[in-house]
Amino acid sequence: MNSYTVIIPAHNEERSIGEVIKQTQKFADEVIVVDDCSTDNTKELCERLGAKVVTNEHRKGYIGAIKTGFERANHEIIVTLDADGEHDPGDIPRLVEPILRRKADLVLGKRENISRISERFINSLTNFKVKVVDSGTGFRALKRELASKLNLKGKCTCGILVLEANHHGARIVEVPITLHHTLKKRNIAWSHFWQIFYVLRQLLKPHTRIESLKNRGA
Q: Using CA atoms, how far apart are residues 98 and 148, in angstroms rounded to an integer?
């Protein structure tokens, strides 16, 4: 069994998260579902399937759920994926491989198509400092030591997670992932309007390197 912690943020995902957990358990030693105050049976279902469930006392949103998961992870490699079934847990070995080979500190699951214009714009801003194709992916692998240093200031992880990781000297690579069709609605992401300001502020910060990430043999 691979020693990875997989974090799945969830809010009212009882219709899809069961199969996600079953597939994820094939590739991870620890599956943590961060239940962001669901009002359906998400928590009970996840517990029955053997996932570790952490319930937020109040709604924290996606970033808050991810940060809660980072705090509870027990393994040195962390993977995040969505609860709606869009991501294929079968891609987990491909995501963690660059970290296992000591070639990366953060691996982004690169989507073939990014549908939202706002997300593509944030990605173009991010590229002023970090050349990546998909800075807003929710499917990623990273070292726990890096995760512990991320503040994730913003409305979502788009752009900001990559920029903060780069600020700490992380080596960032991308690998292609498979996406499954879901019934999730693609509404206009108004939060991206505010996210642009967080990204711009991060772009203005000077680049620094954290000693623990410079020691690549660790």
A: 20
Domain count, the chain: 1
Average the pLDDT over each of 22-26, 99-103, 203-207 and give the range with the smallest value: 203-207
Say which residues have a Cβ less than 8 Å from residue 114's Cβ, sequence separation at least 6.
Answer: 120, 123, 134, 136
Give CA separation, 157 vs 51, 64, 65, in Å: 24, 10, 11
Identify which of 31, 71, 26 has the alpha carbon closest to the alpha carbon of residue 47: 31
- The per-residue pLDDT for 18 is 97
SS (H, E, C) 93-145: HHHHHHHHCCCCCEEEEECCCCCCHHHHHHHHHHCCCCCCCCCCCCCEEEEHH
Six token digits for residue 123: 């990605």
User: Please, what is the end-to-end C-alpha distance for the chain in angstroms?
Assistant: 22
- Here the tokens at position 202 are 């991060």
What's the pLDDT at 182?
Answer: 82
Under 8 Å CB-to-CB from 215, ≥6 apart: which residues? none
Q: Which domain holds residue 175?
A: 4-214
pTM (predicted TM-score) = 0.91
CATH number at residue 183: 3.90.550.10
> For residue 53, what are the β-bridge partners?
33
Q: In what order do the strands lie in the sheet with 4-10?
A: 52-55, 30-35, 4-10, 77-80, 140-143, 106-110, 172-176
Instruction: Determine the Cα–Cα distance for residues 174 and 140; give it in Å rounded to an integer.
Output: 9
